[in-house]
Amino acid sequence: MGHYPTGPTSCILDPTCHVRITSMWDGGPVCIFVFWVTVVLSCSTFFLWKQHCLKKHPVKPVVLQVGNLKGASHANQSSQSVPLQCNQRHDPRGEHSGVTKNEEIRLSLEGESEIQFTGYTRSYFGEFCYLLCCLVSLHWIALYILILVDTYNNCEVESIDNLCFFGNHFIFGTYELNGKVFFVVWWLSAFWFSAWVLNKGRVHNWFRMPCDLPHATFVYVWAPDQHGVLSVNVSFIVHVLRKIRSATMASKSRGHFETIEISITSSGRHYFLYQGQRYLLNSHSLQCVSLRDGYKFHEFYQGARGLSTKQADSNFDKIGPNEIPFKPETLMYTILDELFSLFHVYQLIMYMLQFWNSYLFVASLMTSIVLLSASITIYTRHHSQLAIAKITTYVTDATVLRDGVWVRLDSCNLVPGDIVKVQSDWLLPCDLLLIQGSCICNESALTGEAMPVQKYMAPNKPELYDPEGNGARHTLFSGTTVLQAGTQSGCEVLAFVTATGMSTSKGKLLSSILYPEKMLFKYDEELPIVVLLLLAYAFVCFIISIVFQNHTGAQSYWVTKWIYCMAIVNQILSPLLPVALEVGELQAVERLKAQRIFCLNPKRIAIAGKIRLFCFDKTGTLTKEGLDFIGIQSVLRTGPTFEPVKSPEKGDKIDFRTLNGLATCHAVTKFGDQFVGNQVEVKMFSSVGWELVEATSEPPCVRSPNGDELKIVKRNEFNHARMTMSVVVEDCHGELHVYCKGSFEKIQELSLEGTLPRDYVQTAHSHALDGCYVLGLGYRRLGPASSIEVEALTRDDLEMKLDFVALVLFRNELKHDSRAAIQALKEGEVRPVMVTGDNAQCGHYIAKKCAMLEPHVQVLLGDVDKQGSVSWVPMSMEDESQIHAMSTDELLRYHRKDLEGGVQELAVTGKAFAILRRSEVMDKLLYFTRIYARFTPADKVLVANLHRDHGLVVGMCGDGGNDCGALRAAHVGIALSDTEASVVSPFTSQDKSVTSVMDLLREGRAALHTSFACYKFLIMYGLMFSILKLCCYWYGIILSQMDYIFIDGVAVLILGYAMTLCYPEDKLGKVRPTSSLLGPLNVASVVGVWGINLVFLVGALCFMHTQTGYVKWPARYSHGASWWTLDDNWESTVIFFVMYFQFITSAFVYTFGSVFRKSVFLNWVLMVSYGGLLMFMSVILLLPANAFTSLWHVASEQFNRPNPSSPVWLEYQEHGGKPSPAMSLSFRLSMWWLILGNLAVIIFWQKVVAEGPVAKAFALRFPSSRPKFRL
Fold first, then answer.
1. Where does it reside (predicted)?
2. I want to staple 234 with a disulfide (CB 3.0 to 4.6 A). Which of 238, 401, 712, 1237 is the partner?
């Protein structure tokens, strides 16, 4: 039994002590009341004045319709319309243009489609009132300090049972008055801080005056949240909650908002930045300024003389500096913002109850843990912002043409319309269009593509410029590196600045990191329901605890009873619940990093655990990056019939037209001694053994080993939409020839029918089905022509009426580990599909090789026929002329059973997909389609979105080249890239292997299961602690200080951390972890274990009552405020030890691996912690009484002995009670066996019922409603 406090004496009883406050009319309280009245009167006066002004001059927000990006306005103060010009352009010469362009934007779930702007201006009176409110917040803290000083002044600190439990109350004189003051201050401050936190970001605007935007100094921006909801099949209660939220919550509370200070340029122009976008304000409009697509190539050449200083300054004034407008928060702001969140305010308010209720050291420990956790969060947040700032911040020098003179400027001063000199080894600060010369660039930082790419001078034509389409080969993208400017040293390479700042390609990608789409998991929607249920349970416990405390007859003050009741609420509503649902992700991030998989968005890790469908690019993802050149299959002119496959690398004799086509029809260039360009073209050109000659002022030419030269006088780059590239070649006789290569389907369309072999399609398909990447090569003789005549010929003029020459064959071999990864994915109940830009036949071959398609499955290909409708034919080696094509209606009518049974699957081309999607038939075919072929980058995005719209959690894996859009559109995108963190995707794998997908999914499932395990542990902790408190209140006891330290400080922290250290299973199981907090699995796991624990607890207490030496604790002789005297009894020993073993065993059973994590026995930290606590507490229980066991007040000590040290037992004996013996060893041993039985039943329930055969049988009997498809 511990040494109880003997002092200090209360100040009111100590003649040497002077009580500072004896009445509420003393100076101190009166000053506080006067301050309160001043605040209320000042704020009321301001709000009345504000309402009067608004009634006289109403101000409504300006509304920007983001669905079509056209301005919509509301009446301003003068009831005049406010035109809203959005996405204003600046033409190449820097002149302002009012042309708008529609843009598709993903809207939020609720269908909101507007951004609201409200202007505010400062008011001296309002700022004074706001300052008063800030002082109110500080004064609550000061009052808390004052109360705690009064509570603990002169307290004793001697042992674990005498740790500064009470002071002399020299300020308020008595415990009762101190308690009343604390009660009032606690409720008022809790309301004050909760209201402030819930309205954080709005409070200051309450004390500003709304006004029209042109007169504003601040602008309040509200926008709807863009949510990706991952809970399609939700429970009835979630549907009800959605309706209640929609009906009761104002629309402005269902979006995000920001208050931004309006800045002024040097010329007096008002502007502000919102999410990186610059908005200009003037007396008649709000303009959202950015450079948009839509110019024609020849317009850029019209501005080739550069800008004047006046034009540049004007553009700079409108566009702003060339920078990503991201500034890291100051460390002080991050600290205040993190600590002043609802989560931390709730924690500190609840811990303040413990601070006051004599738990000074325990409360300090818990507060230290909270502050340590917050410090880690603050450090991580600040470090992440510094890392992003490092990516976004870049300033270099640029040589710019201004006023006709070349000058050196900081890159932040570049504006659209500038002409700059491109230099080698230059990290590009903006988007540029080449108008003179060529470059070799490394775009790995932007796309993940490791191979250097060639960039060419843009054509001077009236053709629309699309930087991500037909202009990609001419555009130098911000964030990429120019390896070599010009083909030789001394070449002058000029480029036109097309976009700066956030409008650049890098800026658009970074915006997805800075302002990501929010992903709402099922548990995100269910967590408020869980909180409401816990609140209801806490309210019931609150009432019961009052009844129980009155039942014991203890001499407790009403504030003390209220404190004890609030302690139950604090334990039930654990402040750590939201954190528990994220802890698994934090450990997974580090494990993924060790596997060279880097994560930019940890939230997506848990989402990866629910993926049901994964899209794969083919080339460079499932297959090796390079292609092997197989050879060519030329056409005999006499036939026309195909020759056998030949290869110039083997010395085979090749037709001169074919050989010339291989040597010239490409965009290969040289970087040092290395050929640079598309790997297909590099392999093709290398096979002929010719020399590439590049001169400064001459077109490139190729030279054969015997000295013949062919000059490439014009080149049309490869275009994804056309699926072709072409060149105009001049031979040594001055004759001009056109060579065009592209997909074999496109070359068939462009070639004269008489030059095509009859078995053209069958032969091309047979090569593709054999795994070849097949290109067609066409030729046309132009004859002699001048350079002007050649330049005048359009691409359509050149790529027509071709003579078919040959099929060019490459083989794209499967990566060695792709097949095993796809098989493992299917074994894990995840459907893999292929989305490729290659032809369907090659996709079919790779799908068969990697086991994406089963060997027995027949694939039906959907393509657009000559009539423009979609027809379906089997993919086989047979002559397609003998195969009957069927319509989509026939497919669904006659083949649906085979499709549903997995006997047949579908492949669809990009053209067919577009038609099927428009007619909504694709929705019916989606789950039967395995291969998406000839898909452009935009088409790949549509595939990902279509699966998302059907309620599937979708993943995408690609090399980051033409997959950037799809990688961002999918719920989880992983780029196979050499870079450590690619901005195109939430995840980046440096191993460049599809096995990284397996690693990510394993970690995702394990992280989700770990988070739910920690969640269940905290829920169980709260539920069991509430029962512990109720039992204590029923008997009128309180556990010892050491008991609480071991529960809160040891069990929860050590075991809670150890639970997160479980590793994922090596293989994916056939099920995914639940994401429902209210699902049967989690409910059964929590409620079942809780019920079992209650049964054994009641059994232990009943067993205690049967003991002959047991005497019930005489609570009527105790005082509730002196809680340290209430633990010297049998009841506290039985309750603590039974429930402590239940606490730690719940952590053990909730860490069972199931099929998502490795066995709990492999988590050595948890096993050592759990085993150590199990043995340690068993020893404490069974040892005879000694100084060590007395720290826990174990009943092996005779508390009710003659002349007891306990004041309660002493008074009991003074009123006629008899001494009673200590708890016998036999009883303690029997109780220990009862505890072990409790643990065994819990383990059985969790392993057999909640997560074992019973749960599996239940899942089979009542399967969840979700889309069904073949794997």
1. Membrane
2. 238
